[in-house]
Amino acid sequence: MDFWLLFISLIRAGLKMAVPLLMTALGELFAERAGVINIGLEGMMLAGAFGGMAGSYFTGSPWIGLLVGVGAGLLFAALFSVMSVGLGADQVVTGAAINLMALGLTGVLYRRIFGVTGAALSVQTFAPVGLPGFQDIPVLGEIVSGHTALLYIGFALVPVATWVLFSTSLGLTIRSVGEYPRAADTAGLAVSRVRHACVLASGVLAGAAGSYLSLAHSNTFVEGMSAGRGFIALAIVIFGRWRPAGAMWAALLFGLANAVQFQFQAIGSAIPYQFFLMLPYVLTLLVLVLFAGRARPPAALARAYER
Amino acid sequence: MQKWSVLGLLVLTICFGISCSQSKTASSSSFKVALLSPGPVSDAGWNASAYEGLQRIKAELGAEVSQVETKTPAEFEQGFRDYASQGYRLVFGHGFEFQDAAATVSKDFPNTVFITTSGTTVRPNVAPIVFEIEQATYLLGMMAARMSKTGKAGAVGGVQIPSVKSSFDAFEAGAKAVNPNCRVIVSYIGNWEDVGAAKEAALALIDQRVDFIFHNADAAGLGVFQAVQERKGVYAFGSNKDQNGIAPDVILASAALSVPGAFVTVAKQVKEGTFKAQPMHLGMKEGAVSLVINPKLESKIPPDVRTSIEETKQKILAGTLQVPKGFY
Known about the structure:
The structure holds two protein chains of two kinds.
Chain A: H1 3-33, H2 41-59, H3 62-86, H4 91-114, E1 128-129, H5 140-144, E2 147-148, H6 149-167, H7 169-179, H8 181-186, H9 191-217, H10 229-239, H11 244-267, H12 273-291
Antiparallel strand pairs in A: 1-2
Helix pairs in contact in A: 1-6, 1-9, 1-10, 1-11, 2-3, 2-4, 2-9, 2-10, 3-4, 3-9, 6-7, 7-9, 10-11, 11-12
Chain B: H1 2-28, E1 32-37, H2 46-61, E2 64-69, H3 73-85, E3 90-93, H4 99-106, E4 113-117, E5 126-131, H5 134-147, E6 152-157, H6 162-178, E7 183-188, H7 195-207, E8 212-216, H8 222-230, E9 235-240, E10 251-257, H9 259-272, E11 280-282, E12 289-293, H10 303-318
Parallel strand pairs in B: 1-2, 1-3, 3-4, 4-5, 5-11, 6-7, 6-8, 8-9, 9-10
Antiparallel strand pairs in B: 10-12
Helix pairs in contact in B: 2-9, 3-4, 5-6, 5-10, 7-8
């Protein structure tokens, strides 16, 4: 196979696999910066994947599907927020409960609405769009152009998140709530309100990432199809040192390692496949050990705040 | 105030106790059958066929049925134990991976029959139903090798359990039988649900010029069909169930099992007390395994390929051709 074609295909696959992780991680970043660890990402992604598929199935529009998916993620995030921020319940336990609930609920609804035979490959999905100006550049254009709109939105969110978090007073508020809620409260900031908003934001993005899975990357809903991505996103936040750009590089590394891994398997070798499946995780761990340096989580992370 | 709440609690407990004991007495007389599936039963494949079997047992034998999804060995054992202790007479563990748990739990519940779909483990109340899907995947391999323009065929698997590996080995043997130079490349994704990963695995195979892809990845296999839909000149094969209708433009044929029929047969034996614990090998001869060609794409298969496949099928039916099969 032509080297360049293979190279292009590899990077494209990496980008496609990085985006859902990136979107989810960006949302989680906001929640964690405000002091809430949202373990329920996996469930919120699953809700988003189901909502997206169902929305597109009934309306024929992937954009409405996305909206429904985001709404589904938001709903679970609201539940999580009420429990963990509002009532001060343990964040990890509540998040784990959200995951179980989402897996069960989406499964039941899927079978109720679409029957046991499912609705595979039958919904309207996001079409690839060409990037004007990039389309005609050799190699680079072939890599970055022709993806779904949702993928571009995912990457466009990185500078937006960086700006909000580090250049606006809202960002300062969020970070102070995550570092020292008592001081923030004394200064007149509404700690709970900020935390609620950040958790909801993480639900919105996890829902969008789920919709990406069912409406852009693949074209169906499968029970449990998030397949651990919510947990990888948690790791990516830490790996990216609680910074949007860092999260992007981490997601890209993970996505690319996955693409490389499948390409290795496809060459066909006698090496047990488990080694290849391990590759993205080992690589991520190695980079973390070698280059991460010192990273400090928000000081009030995972601690409920009581006035 | 407190006195009332205590009284209320007491009444509740008694009511609950009565309702529990009632449901027990009512159910012990009825025939109860359960299914442990390794993945969602909405996968339009392996698990869906088992669920269909369970529904047929309910309809044809009037059984009370229940199903639960189990992922880990600990859950397999817990699932078997829960159903057996609730008086279920028959519990299916749908896959090779359920054997150890079935053997362990069977000792404590001699009155319950545990059936694993594929496997070798036999105990007084444990036996496997083994579908010889290899007979059909061998034919698929032949078809791929005869029709491939690049001389490369691929397969995407969920987890490399012996039954899945064996189905791929037979696929490769079939391919090599008609074209010794044909390469068969196998890729695994490590689970049964990650559609996106299965799709990328298939795309990577297509990048390496594979033009026929078989899958044995249950729900995730849907991703393989999507990958094939995206690229031109590539065909896919369905597994475990007639999947041709899922993507009728790209699925050339399926290696189908009639799981429901086998489930009903076993359930009937258990209900009537004629069940004997021995491995049940079901293949093409028993009508339990078949090669289903997609009628919409039938014209794409050259006539000489079709005749040679038909001839090989007759040899398998007559027993003159033994399709290679893993030990499980």
